[in-house]
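BUG-334 | component: ligand-complex export | severity: low

The export step for flavin-adenine dinucleotide jobs runs without errors, but we want the raw record kept on the ticket for reference. Input record follows.
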Amino acid sequence: MSRRVAVIGGGISGIACAGALSAAGIPVRVFDRGHRIGGRLATQTLRGTGTPHDGRVVDVGAAYFTARDQRFVEVVDGLIERGVVRPWTDTFHIADSRGVIGPKLGPMRYATPQGLRSVVEDLAGLLPDDLVDVRHPIDVPPIRREGDRVIVADEEYAAVAICVPDPQALSLLVDDSVADTRALLEGGPVWEPVMSLTTVFDDMCWQDFDGLFVNDDAVLTFIAHDGRRRGDDAPVLVAHSTATVAAGHLAEPLGAAPAMLAALNSVLRPTGDPSWFTVKRWTHARPLTARVEEFGWVDGIGLAGDAWADGPRTESAWVSGQALGSHLAQSVVR
Ligand SMILES: Cc1cc2nc3c(=O)[nH]c(=O)nc-3n(C[C@H](O)[C@H](O)[C@H](O)COP(=O)(O)OP(=O)(O)OC[C@H]3O[C@@H](n4cnc5c(N)ncnc54)[C@H](O)[C@@H]3O)c2cc1C
């Protein structure tokens, strides 16, 4: 009987889960519906902007990540050694709708020269080819149990790790045979939407900063200087909307642009308009809170991601996926 485990989701939690399983010698098949893996560690390449920045990558999902958990600190040290990650800054600025108020010291925030997706791609590239098979783009349909097996995309597995946001996990868990796993998600955190506005300017026509938390604003929550983040100083800003603004424009993301551009203007007061902009929609950007348990588990089907492990953060997604993979390796498929 095959010991192969299916991991649904090729974001950082799914790849961490596959890493823990393959480290224990267990064969794994990772499925992701994206053309590339990475999930919300999402990097887009600028194209058709009419600026010198075409071909440059921009982080349009997570803005950065932190590393407090010692297990993740060790992973980040390796990423830094391989040149994938760099310490970005421990100092962001605070602003409100009237403008920038001042700097604020916090934890070190990590960023990447090639975009945050490169973190997931690098970690996936370290997994042994003879044990880990990453398949994408495959949109996995609802799963079901048959005896002590779990059926994923018409194939049998010894167990399944679902490493996707809760609303996407719920759509995988509609069959009666998996109702016990579905019950683990009931009463879980609310997931909020975010619009991510990318703007390309001719030059850096604002007061210099790395990242800005925008307090008490109806439209924006955060602005990153992507050039500082990436280390090339390109005049590219990425702003995140409030959940209210995002919820009002889910059907037509570009409709959020006028309000977001006006808010950007009132916070930063740049001396020019952007030469190009676009908006990326995140319907389930992040959970408002997270469970303290590192993962969920019922009889052959596990749940992991940033709604677990005291998240919601990139590092808790990694911790959650890794912990689920270790649990599976130690107690379920041995
Ligand atoms: C706008 C925004 C800003 C953020 N800012 C920060 C930040 O500053 N700091 C921070 O630490 N975190 C931040 N985050 C959160 C961070 O991105 C997440 O915590 C982390 O990426 C979660 O990883 P994950 O692997 O759990 O989930 P995901 O990255 O969502 O990966 C899930 C994967 O599952 C795939 N999938 C889903 N359903 C299926 C299916 N049926 N079949 C196949 N594949 C499927 C998806 O394609 C996706 O690749 C932010 C997120 C967003 C969107």
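Assignee comment: Attached the raw record above. DSSP finds nine helices and 18 strands in the chain.
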